[in-house]
Every structure is written in structure tokens, then in C-alpha cells.
């Protein structure tokens, strides 16, 4: 099993959720946050004063998938979240050793 963490632009969340749903991935955790990568924020004008916005709004999606679902999952997120502009986000993949469903005690594939 693999855990996929995707950091995307907030307005792309619905597109990514729909793309994942289409390939059979229905469970996910979504967290709102702020951050920056290469774009390093931007400057804005407020009441005549210029200031730097260092941290931009981001959405982090966490999904645990079976090994055979990994590539379709990455492809779906990439296609749905891409705008072609800087700051589209990143996908991180890590191994998952064990999953336990709290309610039933099911483990691993049965718990996903």
C-alpha cells in the first residue's frame, strides 16, 4: 500500500476529487494550509502600500491506495490539478506498513 500526499491549489480540489472518484478512489483526507515553493509568494497592494504575501493558500490531499492503484491515482491528480502555471503543487508517495479500521478492527486492504 502507498500513501499519496498531494499539495494543490484550492480551486482545483473539486476537480481532483472527481478525478479520483472516477477511478474508484473514494476515501481521502483534505487539509487546508498555507505554503510556498519556487514561486515564493507575491506582492500585493493594499491601501497604497505594497506588501509581500509569503504563504499562499494550499490544499493537502491524503489518500492511501493499493500498489496497483498508485499510477492511476498519480495520473488522475496530475491531470486534474494542472493549470500550467507556477504553484500547481507536488505529489509525495510513501509506503504504508499497516492500516487498521478503528470501528471493525479490519486491517490493511480490508481497511482501506
What would your notes on this structure say?
The chain is α+β, with helices and mostly antiparallel strands and 112 residues long. It is 20% helix and 37% strand. The chain has two helices and six strands, in the order βαββββαβ. It has helices at residues 13-22, 70-81; strands at 2-8, 29-35, 42-46, 49-53, 56-65, 89-95. It has a four-stranded antiparallel sheet with strand order 2-5-1-6, with helices on one face. Strands 3-4 form a two-stranded antiparallel ribbon. A hairpin with a 2-residue loop joins β3 (42-46) and β4. α1 (13-22) runs antiparallel to α2 (70-81). The longest helix has 12 residues, at 70-81. The model has no long low-confidence stretch (mean pLDDT 90).
Total helical segments: 2
Which value, in Å, is the CA radius of gyration?
Answer: 17 Å
What profile does the largest beta sheet have? 4 strands, antiparallel
Q: In whole angstroms, how far apart are the ends? A: 9 Å
| H-E order | EHEEEEHE
Task: Outline the fold blueprint.
Blueprint (H helix, E strand, L loop, with lengths): L1 E7 L4 H10 L6 E7 L6 E5 L2 E5 L2 E10 L4 H12 L7 E7 L17
Antiparallel strand pairs: 1-5, 1-6, 2-5, 3-4
Helix pairs in contact: 1-2
Short synopsis of the structure:
With 112 residues, the chain is of the alpha+beta class.
Please tag this protein with its features.
37% strand; alpha+beta; four-stranded antiparallel beta sheet; 112 residues
Amino acid at each position: 500500500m502507498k500513501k499519496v500526499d498531494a499539495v494543490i491549489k484550492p480551486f482545483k480540489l473539486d476537480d481532483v476529487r472527481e478525478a479520483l472518484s472516477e477511478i474508484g478512489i473514494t476515501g481521502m483526507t483534505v487539509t487546508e494550509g498555507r505554503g510556498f515553493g519556487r514561486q515564493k509568494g507575491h506582492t500585493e497592494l493594499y491601501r497604497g502600500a505594497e506588501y509581500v504575501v509569503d504563504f499562499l493558500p494550499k490544499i493537502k490531499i491524503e489518500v492511501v491506495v493499493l500498489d496497483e492503484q498508485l499510477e492511476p491515482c498519480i495520473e488522475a491528480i496530475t491531470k486534474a490539478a494542472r493549470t500550467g502555471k507556477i504553484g500547481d503543487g507536488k505529489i509525495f508517495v510513501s509506503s504504508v506498513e499497516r492500516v487498521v479500521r478503528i470501528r471493525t478492527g479490519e486491517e490493511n486492504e480490508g481497511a482501506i
